[in-house]
Every structure is written in C-alpha cells, then in structure tokens.
Design brief:
With 89 residues, the chain is mainly alpha-helical. The chain contains four helices and no strands. 75% of the residues lie in helices and 0% in strands. Helix 1 packs parallel to helix 3, helix 2 crosses helix 3 and helix 3 runs antiparallel to helix 4.
C-alpha cells in the first residue's frame, strides 16, 4: 500500500472519530452546535470508515439512524474493494 494512502487513512479516521465524538458530546447540550449529518457521511465515504464504526459502537452514536447504517455499510464495501485492488495490484 502506498505510504500516502496509509497516511491519508490514518488521518481521515482520526478526524472522523473526533467529529463523531464532538457531535456526541454536543448532542447532550441543549442548543449546542452539532456536526451536520452530511459532514459525517462525507468523512466516512472519504475513508474514515474505521473511525466511524468505532465511534458508532463505542460511543453508541447515530446507531438508531438507518441512513447512517446505509452510508457506513456502503462506505465499508467501497473501501474494502478499493483497498483490495490497491493491495492485490
């Protein structure tokens, strides 16, 4: 795997987890500014799949939203195929 891709995946997963954690902490505060759902989806689709899954289950955040399940599963399939192609190349 190219080093730039590994660097990207580590960074995007840390950012994704942090965004989910921030949103979870803000969800408990009345009137607090939240992270848009679209932003969380984009982070996941951009490669933050592992960070999203960890936050999803460890923080129990967004687990009741079907849209998040759909995006996370689609992103997982996408990145599994993409990484498979890169590694097996």
């Amino acid at each position: 795997m190219p080093s730039w891709l590994l660097t990207w995946l580590v960074a995007i997963n840390l950012v994704t987890f942090a965004a989910y954690a921030w949103d979870k902490s803000q969800s408990r505060r009345t009137g607090a500014r939240r992270v848009r759902e679209r932003t969380l989806w984009i982070l996941c689709l951009a490669g933050g799949v592992a960070g999203a899954w960890i936050a999803f289950f460890a923080l129990h955040h967004k687990t009741r939203h079907r849209s998040f399940w759909s995006v996370q599963i689609a992103a997982s399939v996408l990145w599994t195929v993409l990484l498979g192609v890169v590694v097996l190349r």
